[in-house]
């Protein structure tokens, strides 16, 4: 089964779309959606309970440690599937890419599929220019340090074997930097993975939670932490 973890903070406006997105788009897939309410101050929790009520594929949990890191850790622990995909509540990711992820995992028996929004075949719409510029610089820098051809480490939307994620838990990153920590550990620990092109579409409803100025030090921490782990793994060999 495929488990889809969706962290949600003040995403009331997107909840009905989330329900339709997955219930209509994954009819042929055995799946569950695990929505983690990350200390929302709007009616996200109450509205989600009402919309998802009586639908066994949709589960809701309250985060017990504020931040995306806590939400992802909780979502993994609550999941029932053998495969785990992480998607954002703004529905910026393409459900057809999710189905590709799922098929590749089943067919090739690999540990992860790492999507990239910056391949020739990718379609990206409404990506803020400043964010795009900083994204490409940072991801290029990371690819040099880790000597890997992957070019979209910071993208949240990837899929993993649950058993592989369990070997890494708990993740130390507290915010969006968790989306850097996970693929770096996949690469450093030499798990099997495939890179594919994916699409991305800008948020239509609600406010973006990503704040570049607030996250610089956290990304640097994660980069140093994962690079140190990579060195230690080499020494042990």
Q: Give the end-to-end Cα distance, rounded to a whole number of Å.
A: 35 Å
Number of domains: 1
Strand fraction: 15-25%
Radius of gyration: 17 Å
Major sheet, described briefly?
A: 7 strands, mixed
The CATH level-2 architecture is identified as Alpha-Beta Complex
Structural class by sheet pairing and helices: alpha/beta
> What is CATH's topology name?
Spore Coat Polysaccharide Biosynthesis Protein SpsA, Chain A
Number of strands: 9
Detailed description of the structure:
- This protein is an alpha/beta fold and 237 residues long.
- The chain has one domain: Alpha-Beta Complex (Spore Coat Polysaccharide Biosynthesis Protein SpsA, Chain A), CATH 3.90.550.
- Helix content is 43%, strand content 17%.
- It is built from 8 helices and 9 strands.
- It has a 7-stranded mixed beta sheet with strand order 3-2-1-4-7-5-8, with helices on both faces.
- Helix 2 links the parallel strand 2 and strand 3 (58-62).
- Helix 7 packs parallel to helix 8 (212-236).
- The longest helix has 25 residues, at 212-236.
- The mean pLDDT is 92.
Key terms:
single chain, 237 residues, alpha/beta, Spore Coat Polysaccharide Biosynthesis Protein SpsA, Chain A, 17% strand
Sequence-ordered SSE layout with sheet pairings:
Elements: E1 2-8, H1 15-25, E2 31-37, H2 44-52, E3 58-62, H3 68-78, E4 83-86, H4 95-108, E5 112-116, E6 124-125, H5 129-145, E7 158-161, H6 162-166, H7 178-188, E8 193-197, E9 200-201, H8 212-236
Parallel strand pairs: 1-2, 1-4, 2-3, 5-8, 6-9
Antiparallel strand pairs: 4-7, 5-7
């Amino acid at each position: 089964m495929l488990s889809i973890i969706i962290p949600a903070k003040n995403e009331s406006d997107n909840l009905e779309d989330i329900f339709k997105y997955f219930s209509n788009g994954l009819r042929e897939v055995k799946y569950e959606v695990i929505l983690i309410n990350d200390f929302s101050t709007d009616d996200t929790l109450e509205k989600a309970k009402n919309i998802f009520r009586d639908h066994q594929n949709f589960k809701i949990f309250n985060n017990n440690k504020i931040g995306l890191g806590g939400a992802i850790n909780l979502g993994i622990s609550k999941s029932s599937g053998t495969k785990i995909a992480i998607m954002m509540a703004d529905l910026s990711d393409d459900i057809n890419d999710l189905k590709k992820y799922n098929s590749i995992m089943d067919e090739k028996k690999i540990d992860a599929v790492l999507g990239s929004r910056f391949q020739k075949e990718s379609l990206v719409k409404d990506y803020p220019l400043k964010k795009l510029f900083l994204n490409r610089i940072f991801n290029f820098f990371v690819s040099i340090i880790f000597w890997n051809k992957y070019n979209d480490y910071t993208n949240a939307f990837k899929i993993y074997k649950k058993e592989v994620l369990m070997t890494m838990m708990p993740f130390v990153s507290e915010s969006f930097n968790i989306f850097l920590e996970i693929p770096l550990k996949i690469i450093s620990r030499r798990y099997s993975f495939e890179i594919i092109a994916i699409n991305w579409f800008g948020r239509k409803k609600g406010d973006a939670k990503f704040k570049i100025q607030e996250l610089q030090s956290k990304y640097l921490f994660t980069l140093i932490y994962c690079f140190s782990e990579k060195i230690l793994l080499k020494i042990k060999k």
